[in-house]
Amino acid sequence: xxxxxxxxxxxxxxxxxxxxxxxxxxxxxxxxxxxxxxxxxxxxxxxxxxxxxxxxxxxxxxxxxxxxxxxxxxxxxxxxxxxxxxxxxxxxxxxxxxxxxxxxxxxxxxxxxxxxxxxxxxxxxxxxxxxxxxxxxxxxxxxxxxxxxxxxxxxxxxxxxxxxxxxxxxxxxxxxxxxxxxxxxxxxxxxxxxxxxxxxxxxxxxxxxxxxxxxxxxxxxxxxxxxxxxxxxxxxxxxxxxxxxxxxxxxxxxxxxxxxxxxxxxxxxxxxxxxxxxxxxxxxxxxxxxxxxxxxxxxxxxxxxxxxxxxxxxxxxxxxxxxxxxxxxxxxxxxxxxxxxxxxxxxxxxxxxxxxxxxxxxxxxxxxxxxxxxxxxxxxxxxxxxxxxxxxxxxxxxxxxxxxxxxxxxxxxxxxxxxxxxxxxxxxxxxxxxxxxxxxxxxxxxxxxxxxxxxxxxxxxxxxxxxxxxxxxxxxxxxxxxxxxxxxxxxxxxxxxxxxxxxxxxxxxxxxxxxxxxxxxxxxxxxxxxxxxxxxxxxxxxxxxxxxxxxxxxxxxxxxxxxxxxxxxxxxxxxxxxxxxxxxxx
RNA sequence: GCGCUCGUAGCUCAGUUGGAUAGAGCACCUGCCUUCUAAGCAGGUUGUCGCGCGUUCGAUUCGCGCCGGGCGCACCA
Length: 586
Prior knowledge:
Largest sheet: 4 strands, antiparallel
Oligomer: single chain
Strand content: 5-15%
Distance between the termini: 36 Å
CATH architecture of the largest domain: Orthogonal Bundle
Radius of gyration: 28 Å
CATH topology of the largest domain: Isoleucyl-tRNA Synthetase, Domain 1
Number of strands: 15
Strand order of the largest sheet: 1-2-4-3
Helix content: 40-55%
CATH class of the largest domain: Mainly Alpha
């Protein structure tokens, strides 16, 4: 058991002795400012407050029952009732040596593994993946990797947009203005061209819109020609998706698109109607307020000029077509029946928070018992803005295509590799540029808190200095360079810590697991970014001040080599968890 | 109008049950490559945490009000 878990567990036991009925699940310890110690707990102050006790007295009482022999130095009560813990050097060394022997890597698997469906990326058929997709794809992938690492059973599912009204227009375009040669050359660009032209025509001309609708109706009715064209569009899009995902190293267990759920949509609506959850209104079918909460908190009401009016979620349009709420309900139902998950996590733009709020409420009304067993979670994220504060576009007003962004990143990285490492063979420089360029883009997107909008900047996203992926990979490559020069020999799992930089680095290694748990708990990969950046910083400082291969004696050299190796392993594993590769040399 | 969300250093952003003297990167200045990769290290400068009130031993964090930005508000997803 990792030291902080031991402290926590002993602390909880001590609290239980003083206050037998206390809920000790919130009694936690956290890494803290080194001037106070290695770990801190402020939990006793909250507990004292809730029970109207004197916090310092409570801390004193708990401390009297707290036996941390062999774990910590003398525990101190500070301030209003903080407990400050300083690890015994012997335990720190033991923990590192166990890691050096391969017994752990500073994290432990979840005590109760959960089954979690992670729904992310969800690109649309016949449209190019653009810069916005980096968010859902990168965050979703980092989360599935983190949860898997912690021992959960993950089912990742790409809910591809392969159905919907846009296909009416696409079919019309395909039949009337398709350029076969262009389709061969760049299928997605050609499909996008078709859509833009027909869409503009439909806006201007109602007759054109009717034509498109009629193509859609034929598709929905199973018309053989339209089905065949539709399938071809999906196939062409899938080629694009596969190319991008392969470059990004993103894998899904399933890619059940919206169309997969078509067979059940009618049943869903009928069932909702039969159970009086939905009702007809103006020819459509929708789910309305059930009056169970005050209007202000009611997701199905909206205030217009002082009056509360219905804001339903439609599940069937007046023309008989279905809405995405219907598809999403069928999807939840399918996932629950198929995988029995404890959670379903949706990594989707925050602008859809209203949709998910309603969706989850409707599902709760529709399938009460199943809904109780499964947590439905919307992990939202902010928009990517241009430097004018508006949604990010290229100078010509187009969205930035993801493939082109990745190309640019790799190209910029290549320029730098050629400057810094001109002596490496070209193939190796290309490979380094690929890893660094893609890593820079992913890391720049994962670093900000996912909820905030951020301003896109080529220079920032492709930056190779500062708090970036290249900095982290560079730290890794420097360690690997040491080992290339260490002339073999087996690593000895014997650690001794003397220099301040060694201690700082060693203690930071121990916090890898806490960080992973925080990422999983709040679905925030940026915690891991910051942890790894700090690790690289602490390593760099160690590297400057503590010679490894030229250490003063053999024992120190062995110990430092072991520290280097552990740092490299955590960096590699951590970056891998963010979906970022490493190189041995750069 | 109503709801959601955001407002932290010159710029871009962090800030983990409310917690100790609010941090990082970029930019700017000063040092450091005849010792393991200078994509680096060491140090320096920068704040009414939008404003006000409240809860609390303690508020960037919670509540209320105001100001300012963004998003959403029935047959697109």
